[in-house]
Design goal:
8 helices, single chain, mainly alpha, about 130 residues
Length: about 130
């Protein structure tokens, strides 16, 4: 399948619905639909070098949680918290709001080292679930 001119190869066969989900995820993460012409007109060198596109998470939920974990932290602390969220709650993947809601604020603080952010992440999970 192609997502915005990119060829996406899957390591195993999946049904059509799963393929569509993968393609939507790839398109979101890489922002393949983002028109950068006006940006490149302002900064032609950026266009020549292919600059201007930033990655984002597969879901808005993940982007929002990562924004919260980035507050008042060095990058290494942000990475640690997000790795712990994946390991402790998401079975290796980024946890869903439902998985976050399955644990208490105190557990988020202890297991994922979120500190004061734990309450904010849990409230966000409640709001989007």
């Amino acid at each position: 399948e192609k997502a915005g001119g990119l060829l996406v190869l899957l390591s195993h066969c999946v049904d059509a619905a799963a393929q569509q989900e993968v393609m939507r995820g790839v398109a979101r993460v890489l922002r393949v639909g983002l028109n950068l012409r006006s940006f490149h007109r302002l900064l032609p060198d950026a266009g020549k070098r292919g600059f201007g596109r930033t990655f984002r998470s597969p879901t808005l939920w993940e982007d929002m949680v990562k924004t919260i974990t980035n507050c008042n932290m060095k990058w290494s602390g942000t990475v640690r918290m997000n790795m712990l969220l994946c390991k402790e709650l998401g079975q290796g993947a980024f946890p869903t709001p439902k998985e976050v809601l399955a644990v208490s604020v105190d557990e988020l603080k202890q297991r994922c080292k979120l500190g004061y952010r734990a309450e904010r992440v849990r409230r966000l999970a409640l709001a989007v679930e």
